[in-house]
Amino acid sequence: MVLDLTTVGKIEKYLNRYSNNLPYHNPQHCLNVYNRVLEHEDFFFLPKDISLALEIAALFHDAGNRLENSERKNLETAIELMRECKEVRGIPENILAISSSLILSTDSTRLGERFISFNSDFEQLASDILRDSDITETLDREWALKLYKEFGKTHHYMLDVTFFKYHIPFTDYTRKRVVGVFPELEQVYTERVTGSKIEYHLEDSIYQAFANLKRYERLGYSDEVMDNSSSHLLNMLKIKEKLGFKWYSVFRKNYKLICNV
């Protein structure tokens, strides 16, 4: 732990001022993720500067989250609030730049993908720790129900084993935690982690994109957002078809039902 408890307490008060009182994406969620980051066994391998960047990113990763915003907009808002916080202003820019990239890497539309190029393996490890600490919030039944309340029935899959079947954690430490709750996933994880990475990443990304598209439709997002989301999903489906993966026909059928294409 690099940040002292007094600073963390001041940041918590700052987060509360900008909270939109969502059931799940709120300051307490940020603090929960922060504490899981500190508990992660790989956290202790990080250099001090990367540890500091990770702690800051964990505390701010969902700051100011609004349900009507796109995922990207929410992450950009979190970064803005981080940089405006007086407890953070004195921290060197190179540290805050890493924190910003770590926050962007938590994009829930890209679960299961390492889509940001970091400058070092330590920075990549920090991202893996943060993302694993974020998704394991739903291992707690109380927080899983809060997520269900926030997003509604389209995210009901978050409450069961299905979510962790498709969104496999990046680190061994977190995979063991998940298997402790869902023992039936041990064989799945063993096969997926040692199997075809490209098939897993595509399957995982399509699953998440499909869920997001349903969410956007339910919340009445703009035509531009819906078009971008549809195009993103369609491109992945085309790649899946070209590579001949077995899941293509299933997702293609569901995609037609939702998008009428």
Structural features, described:
With 261 residues, the chain is mainly α. The protein is 66% helix and 0% strand. The protein has helices spanning 5-17, 27-39, 48-60, 71-84, 93-104, 121-135, 141-151, 161-166, 172-181, 185-194, 197-219, 223-243, 248-259. Helix 3 runs parallel beside helix 6, helix 11 (197-219) runs parallel beside helix 13 and helix 12 packs antiparallel against helix 13. The longest helix is centred in the last third of the chain and has 23 residues, at 197-219. The radius of gyration is 18 Å and the shape is globular.
DSSP helix fraction: 55-70%
Number of DSSP-assigned strands = 0
Give the topology string: H per helix, E per strand.
HHHHHHHHHHHHH
Mean pLDDT: 80
Oligomeric nature of the chains: single chain
Low-confidence stretches: 195-200, 245-261
Q: What is the 3D shape?
A: globular
Report the span from N to C terminus.
Answer: 51 Å
Calculate Rg over CA atoms.
Answer: 18 Å
**Main sheet specs:** none
Structural class, from helix and strand content? Answer: mainly alpha
In percent terms, what proportion of residues is strand? under 5%
Quickly count the helices: 13
Describe this protein with a few key phrases.
disordered C terminus, 261 residues, 0% strand, single chain, mainly alpha
